[in-house]
Amino acid sequence: MxxxxxxxxxxxxxxxxxxxxxxxxxxxxxxILFWWVFTASKxxxxxxxxxxxxED
Length: 56
Fold this sequence. Notes:
The chain has 56 residues and is mainly alpha-helical. The protein has helices at residues 2-10, 17-39, 42-49. The chain starts with a helix and ends in a 7-residue tail after the last helix.
């Protein structure tokens, strides 16, 4: 199975760029998430954390 996939990937031009793009997207996403966690207001975090306890 791996030989089959590897054989097809070797025939694609520029296939080495896809892992770099994936890593870049991963890094950007978690950097933004990390920034949002540390800059979110405490009131917003408290409000969101109490949502499961509310009865409508």
